[in-house]
Amino acid sequence: MHNCQQAQVKKNRFSVTFTLFVFAALIFVLNQGKSYAFTNDPGSLYQPRFVAGFSGNSDERDLDLYPSIAFDRSAKRFLTVWLSPRHAGSSTSGFDVYGIFLGLSGQPISNAFRISDNNTVARNSLPSVVAGENEFVVAWTKRGSACKVIVQRVITEYNQIDTVLVSGTEHIHSPNLTYNPVRQRYVSVYVSGDDYLPPTFFGAETSDCRNNPSSESHIEAVEFYFQGNTPVISNNLIISDISQGAFRPTVAFSEGLNQYLAVWEDRRSIVNEFGFKVYAQLLNGNLALSGSNIPLAAESNYVDYDSTATWTPRPVVAGGNAQFQTAWFTREASGNSIIWSVIGRSVLSNGNPNTPFPIANMTFVESHVGQSPTGFLSIAYADSIQEYLVGFSSFMESIWGYLSFVLVQRVNDNDQLLNMDGSLQDEPTVGSSVDFTLDDRISIGIAAHTSNLPMADYIIAYSKHAPNQPSTDFDIWGTQMRIQSASIKNSFLPLIQK
Length: 498
Description:
5-stranded antiparallel sheet; disordered C terminus
């Protein structure tokens, strides 16, 4: 009887997987035409395009992964940055940070260029980029006996000298940037102490800043500006209350509130080896603590069937006009499967969090032991339409391997999910598909510009397998998504444009 039930479960899983794959394949075929209409969609999703990437080595040196993107309102251009092992001499070599400038529609307006000085970029964390006034700033972790945070101003394709922002006797790593246009100051949050469960990178050793389940790391924040190309620190403080392991912080600034919110993974009072909580901290416009740490999510067990595929909450945050929006991955058991979902929770200016709500359900169902994928999150706020766009990776298993999706979900300022036509969404779905491919390492970055009121133009950058190339060849791709305010009624039928 037990065997019969197992057989029926496997049959049902295969049936669902095969149906979804056929549906995705149909979408792919339809999208090969000049245009494809989405009924009642008030905006346009443009055809995905190749942005940058390196090929020719037929090994891991052709990998271009983990993009981040920012928009400079003054210069009206984007900068996408990513990691590449192009100059690696062996599997133990470090990475490099590369970048490319993009125009308003996401089209490349420069060649790809090297940002880091040499291949000493640590493999445990993603690069971060933020726009100031007619410039960008990029931050990353530099490997060494003690990891340190490096920053560089990027104005042109010409390389500047890498400059240490923060270093010490212990590992300093995982920086994330935001910009305060009122004070004209940059802020970075980062981890001080050993890392734990860094993202995997095709089997490469990623514990440059250690992989310590007993880490007593904490989160710090630093405010700085530049004199020439030299960063000058004007404020530095610890923002996590307890040093029992804190990882992968992100930070956002709200112009409307004149406040910052930092969010991170936290292991204080954890029971499970793979247990994580999610915490946040509010700071005022002068980077002073406002209240104590805010618990956003209780402990969840993020153990993975495949120990090489680390997948943790990876929280993100964006600053709106009246509140902050946070999002993270959650993992829960459902029968014999594990379901990964995306949860959102807004935080008010007084530090009070609203009720958590599901942004996307069943982003991935982990059904068996084996090579498992890993997900990534991104979020951006468009003040012109008072909406957030949450981007995330999702996967399903097909008979050819993992079918991977780049997905997005509209969320308004009232924590309500929106359909792509701007109408209220009754319940969470898996999200709206931007692109898909057969691989298991898609990562995503989103930035918005609001030059075309009452529109918002999002540029979505992501990495995916290069067509007709070896499995270790990944490139940076992107697409433009134009969204009109949900309050505007539309009578036209938009197109996906090639």
